[in-house]
Amino acid sequence: LGNAVRTHQAILADRMNDMSMAPALSTAPRPSANPKPYRYSYLDFARIGQCRWWFYACGVITIIAVWLSLATYLVLPFLLPGEISGKKVDTDHIFGSTWANNLVELLTFLPLLVATPLVVRWFHQRPWRTLITPFTRINWRLILLGMAIWGGLMIVLGLSTILTGVDSVTWSFNAEAFIPNAIVCLLFLFFQTSAEEFLFRGYLPQWLSLLTKRRWIQSIVIGVIFTIPHMWNPEVANLDGVTYFVGISQYFVFGFALMWVAHTSGTIELGMGAHFINNVLASLVVTTSDSVLGSASLFTSSDSNLWTSLAETIVQAVAFILITMKLRGKGTPVTIQRPPVYPPWPRVIQLPRPGWYSDPWRAAWWRYWDGSRWTPHTH
Question: What is the rounded CA–CA span in Å between residue 265 and residue 267?
Fold first, then answer.
């Protein structure tokens, strides 16, 4: 045994000497003294864990099936009494008052809110937070910033259209309808908007990242997908012709902007805040008589010019992208892949230059280890 150990040490020393004489090492890239910090993104986790495309396909099917089935069970108890009694229900107020309609409608998003993170955890074998952020903790500051920026833009642009006479609103406050509706919206709207963000800006873009991470392509594709389930919203369902496409284009612009910001910030937290405040202001402050969340708000808009609404949405989306361009998620990155432990010879051999090791993923011959994690530097 002693002879075998000494022979092994001698062979290892000879290999190290041979490697130190290799001319290829003289061309190995040297990490700069002040390297540019790596921009972590939640999209980086698309290829971690169980990441084959059919895992994502099964995940989407599971999410939609769980969402629709459990949402049906949540709605049925409210529908059955009216069906049994044979009463004709008003399609605009199926469950009675506006707040009751909104409560049932928002509760149907709870299965979607829970199903998407569970699929990420069980199907793909990675932490559910990687659906939102590449860091170990959710950054509530970014969520509040998204609320403040998007809400401020909505208020400024809304006031400008009213003051210039482009849009006109009427005071429609009714305490009996507004107060319970406001309580329901403030308590449950965040669940509804977060559930949509988990699916449309979290899970689906990660699946799409298996094909491409190009910002323009992902933003356009996700914008189109986000528009599809909103095509039957009552505020656009009654339109026809060109006006119908103008109406649904607002959803595309909104989905495009949030996906673009998710790319630049590396997290969907800004979009979660923006989506929440958008629905709050659109349901409680100024709304239309045919809004999907009812019309129990402070003001009712009488604007029928959809081109003006589309232009306002585009300006708001562009401003939101420009303002959040420099915002990045911060924190401790989620660590999933650790350096594998291999036998010391012959697979893992450190180069004479410190920090360079055999690439554990075999994407290159050598990969640089900075002392705490693998870096993108390869040779």
Answer: 5
